[in-house]
Design a protein that fits this description.
Radius of gyration: 19 Å
Structural class: alpha/beta
Bound molecules: 3-hydroxybutanoyl-coenzyme A
Number of helices: 11
Protein name: 3-hydroxyacyl-CoA dehydrogenase
Organism: Nocardioides albidus
Shape: globular
Family: Belongs to the 3-hydroxyacyl-CoA dehydrogenase family.
Pathway: Lipid metabolism; butanoate metabolism
Helix content: 40-55%
Mean pLDDT: 96
GO molecular function: 3-hydroxybutyryl-CoA dehydrogenase activity; NAD+ binding
Length: about 290
């Protein structure tokens, strides 16, 4: 059941086949989550190399689990057998729900939602894992805003338990309940959040990460800040370790949205965050971010 809510939610729509759009870190993790829970997953990316990257990400995670004695080669083959990659969005015509996890860019997402509206079968749920863009606008880009909802996973998606579920004033109660039931079915904990930039977690988390960068700009050592937070607050990672997991490009996009929506002077993206993105130092995924992974 979703945290803080009443009776266990029920699936009001049959969900057998899940579509995922995107091939980045979040998309790859989300594909893994659904396939691990037994769903057939159709995932769509912009090239065969990107599709292969998703399989590579999942294979690496499963190999690590197998090496720890969790799961077998047979489980891995069965899971990978539930995946179908495609470079064509038309492949999503038969899925019961789509979760999109493409770049955090409103124009790209609006264009995608117009396509999903054209391609997906009637009644399919159109979910987004945007972390800061208005879901109401994505719904309005379709002729079926009642089927549009936010399903915000956290990185790394196979590990992090929380999913924020964001309805708009147009989202139907059945779609909301189905997504809450689906979230529980894939082993996650759902919380309902309002359609504001950052929802709950990112609205609290990213200003803190941004402040950590500003603290470092003032001369404090990155490693000292990371260690201080880990030692006192019980966080598994310090702010710079976490920024490198999330990706500086993603963090900058989120911080810009928070600044645009709330206008708090302190929300202005730290200069070093902007500079890291310009330098292509995006975090673990490029081998270097605030820390070096080479
Ligand atoms: N994919 C899949 N599994 C992973 C993984 C990954 N990328 N990274 C780690 N794991 C698994 C490991 O295999 C291990 O599994 P096991 O317990 O079954 O053996 C487990 O996670 C723990 O991993 P480790 O022991 O290697 O390392 P840690 O104990 O340091 O855990 C961590 C790694 C789970 C990433 C932990 O450091 C953590 O929780 N960090 C904070 C992450 C966080 O706060 N994320 C939210 C970011 S905000 C966000 O995502 C917003 C979005 O909008 C961008």
């Amino acid at each position: 059941a979703a945290a803080g809510e009443g009776a266990a939610p029920q699936l009001k729509h049959d969900i057998a086949k899940v579509g995922v759009v995107g091939t980045g870190t979040m998309a790859s993790g989300i594909v893994q989550v659904f396939a691990q829970a037994g769903y057939e997953v159709v995932y769509v990316g912009r090239g065969q190399d990107k599709l292969d990257g998703v399989v590579g990400y999942i294979t690496k995670n499963l190999d690590r689990a197998i090496a720890k004695g969790k799961g077998t080669e047979g489980d891995k083959d069965a899971l990978l057998g539930r995946l179908t990659g495609s470079t064509e969005r038309e492949a999503l015509g038969g899925v019961d729900i789509v979760v999109e996890a493409i770049a955090e860019d409103l124009e790209l997402k609006l264009e995608l939602f117009r396509d999903l509206d054209r391609i997906c079968k009637p009644g399919a749920i159109l979910a987004t894992t945007t972390s800061s863009l208005p879901i109401t606008k994505l719904g309005e880009a379709t002729g079926r805003p009642q089927d549009v909802i936010g399903m915000h996973f956290f990185n790394p998606a196979p590990v992090m338990k929380l999913v924020e579920i964001i309805t708009t004033s147009a989202t139907s109660a059945d779609v909301d309940e189905t997504v809450r039931a689906l979230t529980a079915n894939v082993g996650k904990v759902g919380v309902s959040a309002g359609d504001r930039a950052g929802f709950i977690v990112n609205l609290l988390l990213f200003p803190y990460l941004n402040d950590a960068i500003k603290l470092a700009e003032g001369g404090e050592e990155l490693a000292t800040i990371d260690a201080a937070i880990k030692e006192t607050a019980g966080f598994p990672m310090g702010p710079f370790e976490l920024l490198d997991v999330v990706g500086n490009d993603v963090s900058l996009a989120i911080q810009k949205e928070l600044y645009a929506e709330f206008g708090e002077p302190g929300f202005e993206p730290a200069a070093t965050l902007v500079a890291k993105v310009e330098a292509g130092e995006l975090g673990r995924k490029t081998g270097k971010g605030f820390h070096d992974y080479s």
